[in-house]
Design a protein that fits this description.
With 130 residues, the chain is α+β, with helices and mostly antiparallel strands. The protein folds into 2 domains: 1-43, no CATH class; 46-130, no CATH class. The chain has 6 helices and 5 strands. The strands form 2 sheets. The protein has a 3-stranded mixed β-sheet with strand order 3-4-5, with no helix packed on it. A two-stranded antiparallel sheet has the order 1-2. Strand 4 and strand 5 (126-129) form a beta hairpin. The radius of gyration is 17 Å and the shape is globular.
Length: 130
């Protein structure tokens, strides 16, 4: 991500960015598809573990979306039903939620965020901090 997207989109970058290298669902390689960003472009990056130390320095502004673990589990299982089938809930319960807990414990994304939004009620997001 750093060399294909973040460095090219930085203030001193070429603007020649790759928006997706390997599609996580299909495993298709898109690394040869280059998009040219204009000099006044704004890059918005969405990622579950976006404040990890190795990439956190690249962000000018950080927004953290929060939701109750039960809500996250339900939404993720519903979203991933098409490709994970009956394993979708177990996948989120046994893999994604523990990974999120570890990330929160090790990185502390709430302290790094400029704004924290409670997204538990999807139709009524609430600013919690910022």
């Amino acid at each position: 991500m750093t060399t294909l997207l973040l460095q090219p989109c930085s203030s001193h970058g070429s603007g020649r960015a790759v928006l997706c290298s390997i599609d996580p669902l299909t495993q298709a390689d898109h690394s040869s598809v280059v998009t040219i960003a204009s000099s006044d472009a704004v890059l918005v990056v969405d990622g579950v573990f976006a404040f990890r130390p190795e990439i956190n320095e690249h962000w000018d502004f950080r927004i953290r979306l929060e939701a109750l673990p039960e809500t996250s589990l339900r939404r993720g299982a519903e979203r991933d039903q098409d490709w994970a089938g009956s394993e979708a809930e177990a996948l989120h319960h046994e893999r994604y939620l523990p990974a999120e807990r570890l990330y929160v414990a090790e990185v502390g994304p709430l302290r790094l965020a400029d704004v924290v939004i409670d997204n538990t009620v999807f139709s009524r997001p609430q600013i919690m901090q910022g």
